[in-house]
Amino acid sequence: MFSLHLTFSSFPLPNAGLIDGDLHFYHYSTDNANSDPVRVLEVHARTKYCRVAQFIKGGRALLTGSSDFSILATNVKTKSTIARLDNTHEAATNRRISLTESTIASGDDDGFTKVWDTKEYSCCNSFEAHEDYISDITFASDVMKLLATSADGTLSVCNL
Description:
Layout: E1 2-8, E2 11-17, E3 22-27, E4 38-44, E5 50-56, E6 61-66, E7 71-75, E8 81-85, E9 93-100, E10 103-108, E11 112-117, E12 122-128, E13 134-140, E14 145-150, E15 155-159
Antiparallel strand pairs: 1-2, 2-3, 3-4, 5-6, 6-7, 7-8, 9-10, 10-11, 11-12, 13-14, 14-15
């Protein structure tokens, strides 16, 4: 099980991804510190361990990455599949970051970083800069560079 901290409609939504692929999103009351969390969204979109999740399209869609090497886009309101890309990486995806309104980057356990067009749900860049898993990704928008760190102890700077 993992947990992330995502933002949806300007409210933080802590969540838990379960080993069966389900995602549960919760809202905590800021008025009463002793109140129990309320589950606001539950997505049953995966059959394998969900490793990373990110809202796109202004919070209307949720992208998830799994140990089955796929990326899945789910409509948050209807919980229906918008798009599913299989074999997006040759290893499990473990990091994802928004670059622009229509692009994201993902990193995998083999050290590959890929850039995705969320309008077309297609890969538009791929970088093989590391020998071990991607531990973090950030984006320098002023110079259009994607920076990634890896468990191999290196930092890559990729020109988009």
